[in-house]
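> call design_seq(struct)
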């Protein structure tokens, strides 16, 4: 146990060392603090989006789901990876070229003030929901590592202290640089543990033989997952990758359009395998501990290894959870600070005071999400419900950028409002659940709302303006084919 404690303490020290290292740079102005001075390279964009994706739901949550649906739980990460790649091709470069800070700011540019207000409310709810789940995962990891020291609640509180502290100190710089460490160690730790467990438990066949009988194959690609739910996951992840504040903030922090695009595509490739590796570990846990609490599946199976192996891997999982929570917590703070506090209460605030205000807002949001975490049940389930709310923002963003003729001045407000009301109705009234997943319901009602507003409202939108220095990069490229015809590519 002392080895595991030392490894965890070492990770904490390294994370805070990185945060204090970038503190002076982050404190220069709000752009440095919130967007890393817009200087992220392709590699930093890639590890940042990977670190954000590979956190609670993608590790502990996937292992939890694997105890119910088998290896197919890994498609959660694969869906995330697909969403990241689509973000790279479709939207990441657009965000950087527009030089925006948040989706609500972009909506006000093209629509009006009320579009900004309703979108910041919806996006804040999403970010708060996701942040709270990071505390649940962090608490379960620390509790499994050191049950004599940390109860589940004590582990969650400790995680919150680290999450909030690192985010408040170094902003996006802290998150980006710490992800280099976290992503490296999470891959090494999970692969090493999986190999050790497979050797110990007789490989895939040995684990499969020890699992209880089920109506599906535990190690088949789809397992207990229906095709409709899989497509729903892909839609959810693509939707949130394009418009959730965390991914948007990382794209806006890129040094140029190409870094944003390539970083997301590379990040998608890094994200893809992790879920299936964690699903195997979850199945090994179910085989060895049939009565285990599913949320504890991943921590418990890794704790069955020797102290060094278990300490390294669980500390790596916790470090990855830290990196995810920091990016999301920073995104939630940015939404409240940029789109509410500065926009409506202190528009003339100085840069130094604005950085201080961001840190205070992050503290308040962090404490609020900790309370919410004490009541969260089912990591992946809660995550997917929260992310479904990004449907309205994604639909409006895509239409604004690629088909503005479908949009009118009130499109953003009413589409977002209907999306929020629809999600509440889905939770409260079972009779509206006529579709296999809430994401299908969200897309249906949001598309209908957008088209109705298009017919009723006659006021066109203001097209968003691309920053001058990136105008050439975003123009369609034309090349002459051997036949003499001209082909245009975006």
């Amino acid at each position: 146990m002392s080895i595991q404690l030392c490894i965890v303490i070492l990770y904490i020290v390294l994370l805070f060392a990185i945060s204090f290292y970038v503190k002076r740079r982050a404190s220069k102005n709000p752009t440095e603090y919130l967007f890393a001075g817009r200087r992220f390279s392709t590699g930093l964009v890639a590890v940042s989006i990977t670190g954000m994706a590979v956190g609670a739901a993608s590790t502990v949550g996937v292992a939890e789901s694997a105890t119910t649906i088998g290896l197919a739980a890994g498609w959660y990460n694969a869906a995330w990876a697909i969403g990241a790649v689509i973000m790279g091709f479709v939207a990441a470069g657009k965000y950087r070229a527009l030089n925006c800070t948040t989706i609500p700011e972009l909506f006000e540019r093209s629509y009006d003030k009320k579009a900004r207000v309703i979108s910041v409310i919806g996006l804040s709810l999403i970010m708060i929901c996701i942040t709270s789940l990071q505390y649940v995962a962090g608490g379960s990891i620390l509790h499994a590592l050191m049950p004599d020291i940390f109860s589940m609640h004590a582990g969650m509180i400790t995680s919150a202290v680290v999450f909030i502290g690192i985010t408040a100190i170094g902003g996006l710089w802290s998150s980006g640089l710490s992800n280099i460490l976290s992503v490296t160690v999470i891959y090494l730790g999970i692969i090493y543990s999986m190999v050790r467990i497979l050797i110990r438990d007789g490989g895939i066949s040995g684990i499969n033989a020890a699992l209880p009988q089920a109506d599906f194959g535990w190690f088949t690609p789809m397992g207990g997952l229906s095709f409709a739910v899989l497509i729903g996951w892909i839609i959810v992840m693509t939707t949130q990758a394009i418009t959730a504040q965390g991914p948007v903030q990382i794209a806006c922090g890129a040094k140029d359009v190409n870094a944003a695009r390539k970083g997301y595509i590379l990040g998608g490739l890094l994200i893809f395998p992790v879920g299936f590796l964690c699903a195997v570990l979850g199945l090994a846990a179910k085989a060895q501990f049939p009565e285990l609490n599913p949320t504890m599946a991943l921590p418990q199976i890794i704790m069955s290894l020797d102290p060094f192996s278990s300490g390294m891997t669980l500390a790596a999982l916790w470090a990855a959870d830290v990196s995810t929570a920091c990016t999301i917590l920073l995104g939630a703070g940015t939404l409240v600070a940029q789109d509410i506090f500065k926009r409506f209460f202190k528009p003339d605030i100085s840069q130094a005071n604005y950085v201080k205000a961001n840190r205070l807002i992050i503290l308040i949001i962090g404490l609020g999400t900790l309370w919410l975490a004490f009541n969260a049940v089912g990591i992946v389930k809660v995550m997917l419900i929260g992310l479904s709310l990004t449907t309205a923002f994604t639909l409006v963003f895509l239409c604004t950028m690629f088909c503005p003729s479908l949009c009118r001045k009130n499109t953003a407000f009413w589409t977002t409002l209907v999306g929020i009301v629809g999600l509440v109705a889905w939770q409260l009234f079972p009779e509206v659940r006529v579709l296999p997943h809430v994401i299908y319901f969200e897309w249906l009602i949001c598309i209908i709302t957008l088209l109705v507003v298009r017919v009723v409202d006659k006021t066109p939108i203001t097209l968003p303006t691309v920053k001058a220095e990136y105008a050439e990069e975003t123009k369609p490229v034309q090349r002459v084919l051997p036949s003499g015809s001209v082909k245009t590519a975006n």
